[in-house]
Amino acid sequence: MEQLTSIHNQHVKDWKKLQTKKARQQTGTYLLDGWHLVQEASKAGIELLELIGTADQLVAHSDLTTMAGHVYEVTEEIMKHITDTVTPQGIAAVVTMPDAHRMPAGPLKGAWLFLDRVQDPGNVGTMVRTADAAGFAGVVVGHRSADLFGPKVVRSMQGSQFHLQLFEGDLRKWIADFKSIGAPVFGTQLNPQAKNFRTVNPGDTFALVMGNEGQGMSNELLSMTTDNLYIPMRGDAESLNVAISAGILMFQLNQNLD
Amino acid sequence: MEQLTSIHNQHVKDWKKLQTKKARQQTGTYLLDGWHLVQEASKAGIELLELIGTADQLVAHSDLTTMAGHVYEVTEEIMKHITDTVTPQGIAAVVTMPDAHRMPAGPLKGAWLFLDRVQDPGNVGTMVRTADAAGFAGVVVGHRSADLFGPKVVRSMQGSQFHLQLFEGDLRKWIADFKSIGAPVFGTQLNPQAKNFRTVNPGDTFALVMGNEGQGMSNELLSMTTDNLYIPMRGDAESLNVAISAGILMFQLNQNLD
């Protein structure tokens, strides 16, 4: 175990840099902040490359220290510096980031969520977490969405990245792939002329596409889907947050968990 | 029209104070920040007691200035001071706060949402907004929940307070009132032994109770309901945010908008 007390230490600088997409891509790693996430990773069999904790916290959870490649005891000041949390719990870990551009393992199967230019990291993370709860097999984030392994997305996912498959990619290609195996792809549209979401019966393998917070899905993607769905609601079309809409649709379309 | 340039002006101090519950209760008013909210109020026939704007914004929306009791032209510094927004739009209005402890007008009817000690203002506001979209008639906030007319709740409600009835009160009394007219009250519980939410058929008049973010509903309220509902999900019980759960349940229980 190494003890670090200065925020100018090179390790500390490297951890801090993991808040940027560039450093995450260069190193192929990202930071988990807090016990819940570190434990979820450990439960999922993810190797803790580096475990970083305050003295108190490392003692309190000595079971995890034996499982980590390197253990660093740091000050609370360093903890605050490397996380973007106001009151960090005093524990963090560096783990390998899955290659979001890999090919899916095996044939496409189950329920999938596609995100088209969703910008808010909290929305992206909450939708991944909800997809997990709804029993979805995977989430694909299209270009110009919030980065899947940024600190705010990771915090909102609450460990769901360890329970389902996450990808980044060209949604046009993903939609074409689903349609080529006869699986329906459902877009979403703030348009009462679209299909009432309660009237579709998607079967076991399908994809649902959610769009940008302000503008919705792109016209190009809307024209590629099997059907576009609408949630009938009172009042104007801005009445539902995108993460709430996604939750309503995912639990309606995937009822295999009952 | 009065021009104000100092944050030490008494009006400015009074507006700033409306961020506190005490000042809102003493004056019976609250602040709407931004054009969308001011316009929603105006559309709903709510009197704009005081309209506060920067010079540019007052010119751009001169239609509203004629409808306000008093109009104040202020600096951007004052706008920032009285709102808790990082980049305020430059317009705000003081309006009368409905008496949340009044008696409901007419017999209890339609779908209602009860909030038991929901603490996060964003969650409370989002749930009111979602209840509005789902065609609910009203929302009742129990004791020790976030205050309905605090700045963050008001921002998250996005004007839904003008479309449905809002109350504060003792949820034990509200539950008893619904049951006394034969209307079911559905609690929510993170417990697979509770009733699957897809199996209930609530009829036109009912109430749904959502609980605290960490602890859920109180045992006392759970024991008073007609039934307690559960959303079947994968993995552990913490997998759904309370506002997402509320959205899924409200759109399942109230399908009268199709």
TrEMBL record, chains A, B:
The keyword Transferase applies. CDD domains: SpoU-like_rRNA-MTase. Gene3D superfamilies: 3.30.1330.30, 3.40.1280.10. One of its GO terms (biological process) is methylation. The keyword rRNA-binding does not apply. GO terms for molecular function: RNA binding; RNA methyltransferase activity. Coiled coil: none annotated. Keywords: Methyltransferase, Transferase. Pfam families: MRM3-like_sub_bind, SpoU_methylase. Residues 31-101 form the RNA 2-O ribose methyltransferase substrate binding domain. The lineage of its organism: Bacteria, Bacillati, Bacillota, Bacilli, Lactobacillales. This is RNA methyltransferase. One of its GO terms (cellular component) is cytoplasm. Belongs to the class IV-like SAM-binding methyltransferase superfamily. RNA methyltransferase TrmH family.
